[in-house]
Amino acid sequence: LRASGSISRFPLIPVRGVPLMCSIANNWDSVWSFCPDPADLLIATYPKAGTTWTQEIVDLLLHNGDAEACKRAPTPVRSPFLEIFSPPPIPSGLDYLKNMDPPRIIKTHLPFQLVPTGFWENKCKVIYVSRNAKDNLVSYFHFDCMNMTQPEPGPWEGYISKFMHGELSWGSWYDHVKGYWAEREKRNILYLFYEDMKENPRREVERIMRYLDLSVSDEVISRIVELTSFKNMKENPMTNYSCVPPPVFDQSISPFMRKGEVGDWRNHFTPEQSKMFDEDYEKQMKGVNIPFRDLI
Ligand code: A3P
């Protein structure tokens, strides 16, 4: 695949002002017209906020902690990515969804205003996971280095600027986290934080369980916490994205399960970059009080 040069980094095309990979933008009508079943569940995130982790927790909760059942297929097959159109022969998210019966665990990175309206009309459950901006940015930078379909990240300094200006795939992190935050009560969205999940995974798994109206034993909760530890998910071929061939995800550049920590931004931002970022952050987040942690 690599030799034939068939994998190329997709340029971004704005859809209602939000830059999306052209593969998505060119298929936008089919994404926008997707209509879920009321039993479907949506896991929404800005890229690299903890999507895969949450997908695994939810699948395990729905299977009462049955590890073998959750090894039936890799993450993107068990929990399709709504808007993704990967290079053929990898099926699109919509192709996977077509062949599955509800209830389906659907992943999206779309900002609130681009989520197909059927999710709201059908009152689907929606879990939103957010992550502090600096760690999110660092994780996205490494991901863009290894995901050969995403636009070139370019040098680190310029990447910070692109993040701040909302020029990366799926647009502005600031608008994304604020958009779902503003709607969380009206739409009954469960709004989670990566830092909370790291601090006390058990508490957050229980929170997700209650939101899903499930009831599993304490023992099963413990098992789910263990199965979804960073270490276990890194080693699990069904969760570590080894399913995506190297010409697309080059994990020799950066593994998908990279570090899984809070505060890694300190190893990347210079004090000057951090100061500049913080000043802009204040402006972009003015008037909203989303309780992000470990940012300063
Ligand atoms: P890092 O690059 O900081 O390591 P997403 O699934 O939204 O693409 O997010 C990927 C990020 O979540 C990566 O962050 C990845 O390592 C981290 N991650 C994945 N599974 C995790 C887990 N079980 N515990 C903690 N972090 C996890």
TrEMBL record:
<dbReference type="GO" id="GO:0008146">
    <property type="term" value="F:sulfotransferase activity"/>
</dbReference>
<dbReference type="GO" id="GO:0006584">
    <property type="term" value="P:catecholamine metabolic process"/>
</dbReference>
<protein>
    <recommendedName>
        <fullName>Sulfotransferase</fullName>
        <ecNumber>2.8.2.-</ecNumber>
    </recommendedName>
</protein>
<keyword id="KW-0963">Cytoplasm</keyword>
<comment type="similarity">
    <text>Belongs to the sulfotransferase 1 family.</text>
</comment>
<dbReference type="GO" id="GO:0006805">
    <property type="term" value="P:xenobiotic metabolic process"/>
</dbReference>
<keyword id="KW-0128">Catecholamine metabolism</keyword>
<dbReference type="GO" id="GO:0005737">
    <property type="term" value="C:cytoplasm"/>
</dbReference>
<keyword id="KW-0808">Transferase</keyword>
<feature type="domain" description="Sulfotransferase">
    <location>
        <begin position="39"/>
        <end position="288"/>
    </location>
</feature>
